[in-house]
Specification:
InterPro entries: AT5G49610-like_b-prop (IPR056594), F-box-like_dom_sf (IPR036047), F-box_dom (IPR001810). The chain is mainly beta. Helix content is 14%, strand content 38%. Strands 7, 8, 9, 10 and 11 form a five-stranded antiparallel sheet that branches. Strands 12, 13, 14, 15 and 16 form a five-stranded antiparallel sheet that branches. Strands 3-4-5-6 form a four-stranded antiparallel sheet, with no helix packed on it. Strand 14 and strand 15 form a beta hairpin.
Length: 392
């Protein structure tokens, strides 16, 4: 037997689980639940070394970017983070606690997306981008004219597909130039360049709907679908403001008055993709999901996609049929937070599965936090700390 053949005999191919690269690819496919990586880290020292590597965790977050679990939500009015999952996937509220400086107490939160939370620091004329998982914080000064705007500025945060390090922030506001003449303004910031882009604007048509209030960009969280962000417009015109992220243009989408039959209105992703609207009616306890479609001639229209009998779905007694209110919307899980007299409910709109979270008589607004979290610091600390994570 030749020496080359003897060397080959002494070096057989590595078994699949003896190859660290292949094992990492297998571990990347674990479910994106908070307990997945801590459980894997308990198997052996080698597995713990792989899943505790920061580069592996970045890849894990990136892989599950489109299907993150709904970990819980933040209350706009400063209440602590509320977890939505049960042990062993429950994230303790103190793990997602943001400490404000005294000058930052006057703030307004705009929502969460792609694992980031966006907050306006009104006294400082800044936006704060916070990653609760890593603890990273970025403070960005408002650009003109948002730094002197008298109307409430709304905003949204997002990351590019395939990028877990950089982010964009979009500001939007409606300003009245003269009586019954309003324009919407928007501007986008990129963390790659550290700069704000050009200011873009579009006129908002006046709609005689009986409201004397000028049209405003409402305080609801923006909804991302495809390459566009959407905000609800209220006041003289009930409609939707669209910001195209690729073209960096603004447009106003009108909502026909005859479908405004709900007491609570939420911009949402339509089932199967596209722009949708959710109306919740207190008169008949029905949720109606509308979808915007464009025909082959380029003409857009709204059509009713589905109606949900909430009284039947929730098995409500007649005395429990009190006013309903939408408190928040989780766009990646397609779930709505709804206040009812029996408690705050989270309803997944496709499966119609619902969960009662807690009971309260205080109305608030919730920012659902959809992200991949695995307590990476606990994993790196070894077996005992990972064990603690599994038992929270």
């Amino acid at each position: 037997m030749s020496s080359s053949r003897r060397r080959h005999a002494r070096s057989p191919p590595a078994a699949p689980l003896d190859d660290d690269d292949l094992l990492s690819e297998i571990l990347l496919r674990l479910p994106p639940q908070p307990s997945s990586l801590p459980r894997a880290s308990l198997v052996c020292k080698r597995w713990r070394g792989l899943v505790s590597d920061p580069g592996f965790f970045r890849r894990f977050r990136l892989r599950h970017r489109r299907n993150p679990p709904l970990l819980g939500f933040f209350d706009r009015y400063g209440a602590p983070f509320r977890p939505a999952l049960k042990a062993p996937n429950r994230v303790p509220p103190e793990r997602f606690s943001l400490q404000h400086d005294e000058d930052e107490m006057h703030s307004f939160s705009h929502g969460c997306r792609h694992g980031l939370v966006l907050i306006s620091l009104l006294k400082r004329h800044q936006v704060l981008v916070w990653d609760p998982v890593t603890g990273d914080q970025h403070r960005i000064p408002f650009p003109p004219p948002f730094d002197t705007a008298t109307a409430l500025v709304n905003a949204a945060v997002l990351r590019d597909a395939g990028d877990v390090q950089h982010f964009q922030v979009v500001l939007a506001v409606a300003g009245t130039d003269a009586e019954y003449h309003t324009r919407a303004l928007a501007c986008m910031y990129s963390s790659k360049t550290g700069l704000w882009g050009n200011l873009v604007s579009t006129p908002i048509p006046y709609q005689a709907n009986g409201y004397r209030i000028p049209t405003l960009v409402y305080t609801d969280d923006a909804v991302l679908d495809g390459d566009s962000l959407y905000w609800k417009l209220v006041g003289n015109l009930i409609g939707i403001l669209e910001f195209d992220l690729k073209k960096q243009t603004l447009a106003v989408i009108q909502v026909p008055v005859d479908i405004l039959e709900g007491n609570s209105l939420q911009v949402m992703r339509a089932e199967g993709g596209g722009l949708g609207l959710l109306f919740v009616s207190n008169s008949d306890y029905t949720a109606r999901l509308w979808k915007r479609k464009t025909n082959r001639h380029g003409v857009a229209s709204w059509e009713l996609a589905r109606s949900i009998d909430l009284g039947k779905l929730l098995s409500l007694e007649p005395e429990e049929k009190r006013p309903l209110m939408i408190l928040g919307y989780a766009e990646q899980n397609n779930a709505v937070f709804l206040w009812t007299v029996i408690g705050v409910l989270m309803i997944q709109l496709e499966s119609l599965k619902f969960k009662k979270l807690f009971k309260t008589m205080t109305f608030s607004h919730y920012h659902p936090f959809e992200s991949v979290y695995s307590a990476g610091a606990c994993i790196a600390g070894g077996h005992d700390r990972a064990e603690l994570m599994l038992n929270v």
